[in-house]
Specification:
single chain, alpha+beta, 11 helices, rod-shaped
Length: about 375
């Protein structure tokens, strides 16, 4: 009888410990295995690699770039911007509209834990966004500086389709970023050019109106013509006066004296008329020429300003071209031929190890409590 009691006393702790082990480790691990192998829906992962680069990356690498790459700083803020967009609400909303994303993740046959909405999730946008970020992963490969996009769903075709849609949306985002950057760099310079062109056009209209109003085609050429006429008349007048003086000395009573005097009077009248057209009244050529020269000088100044602004515009365009960014697909989204998720063996090992640690902690606590009560 004593031996039987001793055996039972030794057996009871072991039996209790065994029950605890089975209850905390074996049973949950077995239930997890049943779910993974009998219930869990297979999920397929489509992967693609892409690169966000600038146009200046085509040039030969400088020492600074080489050092930066060797230190693992190969990614730019544009790369992180594209990565952030892929897991953003904007990208999720785009996929919901174009691909009916909620239906993809709630397809018939998906298990009650993995599908959306799962039994522990409310059907809200925040819940779906949390679910979306668990199935769309984009990371930066530190070794290659390439961005890696991994899309997980219940169908290989759906995963590939989602990955392609995200790449297309990201390319559109990059194009919009280029357009905004180009507008920021070129917009101000283009506006200055347009304003100066408008001023030149308005000034050209003023010149045309001035020419029509004053019956002037080319005041400078007309002034040359009038000055030439004045010079010719002055020459003729001087010659006629000299001829008259000679006649008066040699033949004072010659009848040609009167004729020469009449010619001199006519020449003086013509010369006075020509001079009045050049200078004198407000409608003479000199005031007109001054006003015309003022408009012409203003136009020349505006043309020089325009040339400078056009050069600045071309420089801004060249800078915008240098700062353009591109999204290049290094590898196309693949069509997976087997399910990578869930990783059954890894999950079982993690569950078993975690529960084993819990069992050890409970065992230590129970042993400590027994020793304390025994004392």
């Amino acid at each position: 009888m004593a031996h039987t009691m001793s055996f039972l006393q030794r057996l009871y702790p072991r039996t209790t410990k065994a029950k605890l082990f089975y209850g905390t480790v074996i049973a949950p691990t077995f239930v997890t295995a049943l779910y993974l192998y009998l219930v869990a829906s297979p999920q397929y992962i489509s992967e693609t690699h892409f690169l966000v680069r600038g146009s200046q990356n085509h040039s030969l690498p400088s020492l600074a770039n080489v050092m930066e790459g060797s230190l693992g700083g190969g990614a730019s803020e544009n790369t992180y911007a594209v990565q952030d967009y892929m897991v953003s609400r904007d990208a999720m909303d785009l996929l919901r509209r174009e691909l009916h994303l909620e239906q993809i993740y709630n397809r018939k046959g998906a298990d009650f834990i993995a599908r959306y909405p799962a039994f522990f999730l409310h059907k809200t946008m925040e819940s779906f966004y949390w679910y979306y970020k668990r199935h769309i992963k984009v990371v930066l490969d530190a070794d290659t500086s390439l961005s890696v996009l991994r899309v997980r769903s219940f169908s290989a075709e759906d995963s590939q389709k989602i990955a392609n849609a995200l790449l297309q949306a990201s390319e559109k985002l990059v194009n919009e970023m280029n357009a905004r950057q180009r507008e920021n760099l070129i917009g101000a310079a283009q506006k200055e050019v347009n304003d100066t062109l408008h001023k030149i056009q308005e000034l050209q209209k003023q010149l045309a109106a001035y020419q029509n109003r004053n019956s002037l085609i080319d005041p400078q050429k007309q002034s040359v013509s009038l000055i030439s006429t004045e010079y010719a008349l002055q020459t003729m007048l001087s010659s006629t006066q000299m001829h008259l003086q000679q006649v008066q000395k040699t033949s004072p009573d010659s009848p040609s004296t009167g004729v020469l005097k009449n010619q001199i009077d006519i020449l003086k009248e013509q010369l006075a008329a020509v001079r009045s057209q050049i200078t004198g009244a407000s409608n003479s050529l000199v005031p007109k020429l001054m006003d015309f020269d003022t408009l012409t000088i203003r136009r020349q100044l505006l043309e020089k300003i325009l040339a400078s602004e056009v050069a600045s515009l071309e420089s801004a365009k060249a800078q915008a071209d240098r700062q353009m960014i591109f999204l290049e697909e290094v590898t196309q989204p693949n069509l997976p031929d087997y399910a990578e998720y869930p990783p059954n063996i890894e999950v079982l090992l993690i569950v078993f190890a975690t529960l084993g640690m819990v069992f050890l902690m409970i065992s230590l606590l129970v042993s400590g409590a027994r020793e304390h009560s025994a004392n």
